[in-house]
Design brief:
The structure holds three protein chains of three kinds. Chain A is α+β, with helices and mostly antiparallel strands. Chain A is 30% helix and 17% strand. Among the domains of chain A are: 3-80, Ubiquitin-like (UB roll); 166-240, no CATH class. The chains are: A alpha+beta, B alpha/beta, C alpha+beta. The interface between A and C is large, with 50 and 51 residues. Bound molecules: flavin mononucleotide (FMN), iron/sulfur cluster and FE2/S2 (inorganic) cluster (FES) (2 copies).
């Protein structure tokens, strides 16, 4: 259990924790954009920069990303030193030039005292901040239907060959984790569309409501979900449970947990 | 044939070496990439044909060898005749008959093909050529001397002697200690002490370890690693095997670009031959140590040379850098402890073990030991592959080895360290080549690119050029590098096009600092070096571009106008000189020689022969071809802004 | 010591206090949350309502299907708890739960499920009829 000092506050965190977790535990506020507790640390947005030093180090501290720096015993962390703030400000300024119309980025900019971008504003504004959350979520699903393509400033997130992604299961996790709501999808008439691919929805056998893409049902089955559990929507499954409970109670009172087994 | 022990190796070595001493004549034809491009394959064929025609063959003790790069690519195709080391330059197939007759059938020389320069005159022997005389070759010791496709040739030249010593007579710790004594530091960029890296890997917990060779070399203009892979693959294999023995690895990878097919095929052949000889594989030389090597071919993104990206690429993932807060020596390739070293680093290991760390440490400066190979390019008389002791001054490299600046023009700066290195101005040229000193000067050792720049080099444009390269090669994963370099490039493109604005320099500094501190990997962090070093030493040029819309070197087309001087007294003071001869600027009136007319790509120059010519300013695109072609110094350049102002005056 | 939440269906009078309690205790700010408990079949017999809520299964299908280990069993309460920060919102758990007790809150874009209020289920506390009874395992006191 390493103990660190974050902005003068001593904090002890479990082994394997990150500096970000330690800093948050110590009450420090650090902006993040590409960080997600459920996904691989990525270190791409560079907003979570902090300055670290260790006893015995001489000279200036080292600037690192807190979201993937392991919390080490004795580490001294400064979350808002001058260099950190200035660097973070450049990063936010650059993001604002890239995504001038994106509310989340505008808010970040305001928080960093930036009224308008200091640099050439993107002639083709986008909401994508290239945080890589969508692709990592997709990787986490084990699906990897989308990925980043090309490099440098032309980097973008796209399905292979910009075609409807064959591996996509239409679960919408990418769209849900996107911090700016950049990933568009729609649902109508029992069909869900995302990344240019149209998915047939499986309809609930109880109420007829489309509740799950057939592709995601297949994915869930492969991970051990029971076929019959995927046939009904959650509301109908609750109705079914209520009916069972009543039936049972007509005979005797049963502990809820017994019904489960 | 497998060699089963150190003793058997020594017997084999003696046999192959003696067989070579007994040879009457050996013709070494350089088939390095540079010479191949100049047609050395045809020269090689011509030798084969001619020797057969003359009935000369191996039985009569005459051999032809296809070698790697000899270094002096500028003068290629190169041919050396052994014994004696007679060096022939710019050899064409039609010269072959004469060489065979004089140099092989008799002991004469073909004087017209010898290396000549103003200072040294004609040099009969390779060792007398200034280009080679000032070099000390350790990494490059055998390139150009041996046939890279013949392991016995390598063994005869001393390959694997270090390996025999390491696995036969030393413990892994002793090997690391020996490397430590040598003071060897990484030749791939950062100069990290090699022994420290190895020790960290050796002591890291884990059952599986790797050694990896970084052969990604993708800096524009650099070719020393590539030449090593093409010209002396066994030095790399030997170094890696010793390294693996030292850290306890049994698997290794050599990461090479697919764009270097010659390197790929040479290494593949070499690995196969080393396996056949029992120098790779199980129970190497009967020592009980197992190690094998595989090639991993990269797609050729510059960033894949970065260690963490390279390892991801070998793993079959996207070659993108990731945070290195946990060192590769603890968790590298496939999350196992890994040692990654540069091609050149690996290439000297065998020699260090064979000859001892102290021998190596005798060369160099207190903190930078041994020698360093460079790809010497740019405006220098002899471009090519050079290796000098650490501590050699940049001036010695340029003036002595490189033979001075091309066409005797004044030297302006030397750029070292590849695209993210910096420019060292002429005034600091006595700087000894050493990791720390180059860093202090705002540049870096990098992988060993050395670009010589003359007075016709605009330093703002130089910065823009490297910036553009790095902007395109940025992987785009992290915000500061992806967005910041793009913004910097936009500012630079504005400046060189005459759209510089007040405040640009401050904007550059702020952005550069943000990118330097904020980027994920070294590509982004060091990308600002060319900007910062040119700003530091050539700030005046920035001001000229931004404030006066003038390019002092006269190469930014949008800013520069050319005119032909008719009376020898330039009418407008432009602050720029005419054609230089040596260090002296001489401006003479146009004599109507007509050379410029042919040089101009757009036909903007008019004039009768022997009569003064003129440039049609409307058509001129400002390329400067006439200026570079004019032999009398009758063309001068000046800021276009002055012409515009003058035209306005005239109109009033 | 795990918490057991018992449902005595015939005692339910359909008042909905449990839903209210749940909505308030899980509220973020002033807006009540989507309740994790639902009183169904208010007009069916016997009794005026049937409360349904997560059974905290021994082999939870939701936990099994989750790709990002956002669901885990709370050591002290025995509840299957959702770590919202780890959840990537694929909603596979919603599909996989055999009883429909993991739901999607479309307003907040989060998955919701019963967490036994960290050991003191408020639904049981506010149930006026004793249709919901919470107790620690081992000291079941059923009237
Ligand atoms: C963008 C980038 C490109 C690099 N390219 C190379 C390369 O082509 N070859 C190389 O040896 N090292 C390259 N490096 C340095 C490597 O990351 C690494 O430091 C080196 O291979 C370690 O070997 P050494 O200790 O022997 O120098 C590069 C680094 C960066 C940041
Ligand atoms: S610094 Fe550049 S090359 Fe390195 S990770 Fe960031 S974007 Fe990629
Ligand atoms: S949150 Fe750490 S780099 Fe994005
Ligand atoms: S390729 Fe022949 S000298 Fe370099």
């Amino acid at each position: 259990m390493p103990t660190l000092r974050v902005d003068g506050v001593r904090v002890t965190v479990p082994a394997g924790a990150t500096v970000l977790a330690a800093a948050r535990a110590a009450g420090a506020e650090i902006p993040t954009l590409c960080h997600h507790e459920g996904l691989e640390p990525w270190g791409g947005c560079r907003l979570c920069l902090v300055e670290i030093s260790k006893p015995g180090w001489t000279g200036e501290g080292k600037i690192v990303t807190s979201c993937n720096y392991p919390a080490e015993d004795g580490l001294v962390v400064r979350t808002s030193g001058e260099r950190v703030v200035a660097t973070r400000r450049v990063v936010v300024d650059l993001l604002l030039a890239r995504c001038p119309g994106t509310p989340l980025v505008q808010r970040l900019a305001r928080e960093h005292g930036i009224e308008e971008a200091s640099y050439e504003v993107n002639p083709e504004p986008t909401d994508c901040v290239l945080c890589g959350l969508c692709t990592r979520a997709c990787d986490r699903m084990g699906v990897s239907a989308i990925a980043s393509v090309s490099r440098g400033a032309s980097r973008a997130i796209a399905p292979p060959f910009n075609q409807p992604p064959p591996d996509c299961i239409g679960c919408l996790a990418c769209a849900e984790v996107c911090p700016t709501g950049h990933i568009a999808w729609s649902e109508a008439d029992g069909r869900r569309t995302i990344w240019g691919r149209v998915f047939e929805m499986q309809r609930c056998e109880g109420c007829g409501r489309p509740h799950l893409t057939a592709a995601q049902a297949g994915w869930a089955r492969a991970r051990g979900a029971a076929e019959q559990d995927l046939r009904l929507c959650d509301a109908c499954k609750r109705e079914q449970l209520a009916r069972t409970l009543r039936a049972v109670s007509r005979g005797e009172t049963v502990a809820a947990q017994a019904a489960a087994s | 044939m497998r060699i089963e022990s150190g003793g058997a190796f020594e017997a084999h070595r003696r046999r192959v070496a003696e067989a070579r001493v007994a040879r009457r004549k050996t013709v070494l034809v350089c088939c390095g990439t540079g010479c191949l491009a100049n047609g050395s394959a045809a020269v090689l064929d011509a030798f084969a044909t001619r020797l057969t025609a003359r009935g000369l063959n191996a039985e009569l003790g005459v051999f032809v060898k296809k070698t790697g790069c000899h270094g002096c690519c500028q003068r290629g195709p190169l041919v050396v005749v052994e014994p004696g080391g007679t060096l022939y330059t710019k050899v064409q197939p039609r010269d072959v008959a004469e060489i065979v007759e004089k140099s092989i059938e008799h002991d004469e020389t073909v004087t017209r093909l010898l290396y000549t320069d103003r200072k040294a005159g004609a040099c009969t022997c390779q060792g007398d050529v200034p280009f080679y005389k000032h070099q000390t070759r350790i990494a490059l010791r055998n390139i150009g001397r041996l046939d890279p496709r013949d392991i016995d040739d390598a063994i005869a030249h001393g390959a694997y002697a270090g390996l025999v010593r390491a696995v036969g007579h030393m413990t892994p710790e002793q090997v690391i200690d020996e490397v430590e004594r040598s003071g060897l530091r990484g030749r791939g960029g950062a100069g990290f002490p090699t022994a420290r890296k190895w020790r960290a890997c050796r002591t890291a917990p884990g059952d599986r370890r790797f050694v990896v060779c970084n052969g990604d070399e993708g800096d524009p203009g650099a070719f020393k690693d590539r030449s090593l892979m093409e010209g002396d693959p066994h030095a790399i294999i030997e170094g890696m095997t010793i390294g693996a023995f030292a850290v306890g690895a049994h698997e290794g990878f050599i990461y090479v670009r697919d764009e270097y097919p010659l390197a790929v095929s040479t290494l593949t052949t070499a690995i196969g031959q080393a396996r056949d000889r029992g120098l790779l594989g199980t129970n190497i030389l009967g020592s009980g140590f197992d190690f094998d090597l595989r090639l991993s071919r990269g797609g050729g993104a510059f960033v894949c040379g970065e260690s963490s990206a390279l390892m991801r690429s070998i793993e079959g993932k996207v070659g993108e850098p990731r945070a290195k807060y946990v060192h590769a020596t603890t968790r590298g390739l496939f999350d196992c402890p890994t040692v990654l070293n540069n091609v050149e680093t690996w290439s000297v290991v065998g020699q260090i073990i064979h000859r001892g760390g102290e021998w190596f440490a005798r060369l160099g400066t207190p903190l930078s030991k041994g020698t360093k190979a460079f790809s010497l390019v740019g405006k220098v008389a002899n471009t090519g592959l050079v290796e000098v002791p650490m501590g050699t001054s940049l001036r010695t490299i340029v003036e002595e080895v490189g033979g001075g600046v091309l066409d005797g023009r004044p030297l302006k700066a030397v750029q070292t360290g590849g695209p993210s290195g910096g420019c060292v101005p002429e005034s600091l040229l006595d700087l000894p080549v050493d990791y720390e000193r180059l860093t202090e000067a705002g540049s870096m050792m990098g992988s060993g690119g050395l670009i010589v720049m003359d007075d016709r080099t605009c330093m703002v444009e130089v910065a823009r050029y490297f910036l553009r390269f790095l902007t395109e090669e940025s992987c785009g994963k992290c915000t500061p590098c992806r967005e910041g370099l793009k913004q910097l490039l936009a500012i630079y493109e504005g400046i060189v096009a005459g759209r510089g604005r007040p405040g640009d320099v401050e904007r550059i500094r702020t952005l550069a600092e943000g990118i330097r501190l904020g980027s994920l990997c070294e590509l982004g962090r060091s990308a600002v070096n060319p900007l910062l070093s040119t700003l530091r030493y050539f700030g005046e040029e920035y001001r000229a571009h931004i404030e006066r819309r003038a390019c002092p070197a006269g190469t930014c087309r949008e800013l520069t106008a050319y005119e032909i001087v008719h009376d020898g007294h330039p009418g407008r003071s432009a602050g720029v000189n005419g054609k230089r001869r040596g260090a002296r600027a001489v401006q003479r009136p146009c004599n109507g020689c007509h050379v410029c007319v042919a040089a101009c790509p757009v036909g903007a120059i008019a004039g009768e022969r022997k009569r003064p010519h003129t440039i049609d300013q409307e058509r001129c695109i400002g390329c400067g071809a006439c200026y570079d072609a004019c032999r009398v110094g009758a063309i001068r350049f000046f800021p276009k802004s002055e012409r515009v102002a003058a035209d306005a005056d005239a109109a009033c | 010591m795990a918490i057991v939440l018992r449902v005595v269906t015939e005692r339910c009078n359909g008042c909905g206090n449990c839903e209210m309690a749940c909505a308030f205790v899980h509220a973020q700010g002033t807006r009540p949350a989507q309740p994790r408990i639902q009183v169904l079949g208010r007009h069916a017999s016997p009794g005026p309502g049937t409360p349904v809520l997560c059974l905290q299964c021994d082999e939870p299908a939701c936990l099994e299907v989750c790709p990002s280990q956002a669901l885990s069993r709370d050591e002290t309460t025995g509840a299957i708890r959702l770590n919202e920060a780890r959840c990537i919102r694929c909603r596979s758990c919603v599909a996989a739960c055999p009883f429909g007790n993991v739901a999607w809150d479309a307003a907040r874009h989060v998955v919701v499920k019963c967490d036994l209020c960290g050991g003191d289920p408020q639904c049981a506390r506010f149930c006026p009829t004793g249709a919901l009874l919470s107790s620690r395992t081992g000291i079941l006191t059923c009237p």
